[in-house]
Amino acid sequence: MSPRIVTLPGDGIGPEILAPATEILSGLVPGIEFEEHLFGGASIDAHGTALTDEVIAACKSADAVLLAAVGGPKWDTTDPGKPRPEQGLLGLRKELGLYANLRPVKPIPALYDSSPLRRDVIDGTDLLVVRELTGGIYFGDKTRTETTASDLCAYSTEEIERIVRAAFQAARTKMTAVDKANVLETSRLWRETVVRVHDSEFPDVPLEHLLVDNAAMQLVSNPTSFDVIVTENLFGDILSDEAAMLTGSIGMLPSASLGTDGAPGLFEPVHGSAPDIAGQGAANPLAMFLSAALMLRHGLNLENEAAALESAVDRALANGLRTRDLGGSAGTAEATAAVRAALNV
Length: 345
Prior knowledge:
This protein is α/β, with parallel strands linked by helices. It has two domains: 1-98 and 257-345, Isopropylmalate Dehydrogenase (3-Layer(aba) Sandwich), CATH 3.40.718.10; 116-247, 3-Layer(aba) Sandwich (Isopropylmalate Dehydrogenase), CATH 3.40.718. The protein has helices spanning 14-28, 41-47, 53-61, 85-96, 119-122, 157-170, 185-201, 212-221, 233-244, 286-299, 303-318, 332-343; strands spanning 4-10, 33-36, 64-69, 100-105, 127-132, 142-144, 149-151, 175-179, 207-211, 228-231, 254-258, 265-269. It starts with a strand and ends with a helix. 47% of the residues are buried.
């Protein structure tokens, strides 16, 4: 049976980078089917909400969901009563039960000189940030008056246990649990739960604990010391974007959001919608391609096709491909052509 993918182009450069990704996927996976829906700001303009019931139903029945980008200044507001594009993303994660966000960070040797860090600092970096995605401060109760505001950060042991297990299962050499246990009660529960799961289920995996501020410093001073990082929603959001710069550009980082067995995963590049370059054909599509590779691997169990696409991106860069964010002049079409040539599709 041919896999069916729901595609969500979203806003800004989203449609420009998603279209070539689906073309490449069609060449890699004969018979693959795509079903496109409005999402984010585009959905707000059309339907008054960032995520409709129709899109939720379509995503739940798909084999995987491929998202490009959401948001932009057009929809920015501080009015809590008005819809925001990001509400669609949070809502979709919740509806699909996508509690584990995986962000692999492995600088490509051809791009070492594009990183703001020295070559000798990033050489050999190969880490994975595992971020809890459906709990914490983003989903806690919120209050607002004219002079005060609050956001509740709450976690249950069940929420912590499932993300920690996913991280331990991905670990190869060690796991680093990041928290703020010297200040936050939620972090103390996180640390206690991590230790309990480690001691009872994964005692052979080396475990270390880092406070989030120290982890942020270590990511840029000693990134090769990390294997798998597991942390809560807010910390994971910040640290994974910081880690993206090890690759030289946030335009190079893919992500996968996974839930329980059988639930469709959500795959998306980490970068934003870049409205300042939308419509110019200048967007870097490589993170979108790498997100499609993660979809092939984790969403469709097509390891060979995933590896082939990742290798094609590596070869295109090794052959000199550089988009504007990487210090070159190649646009979306040129980058796509280079990857397709390396992939021979």
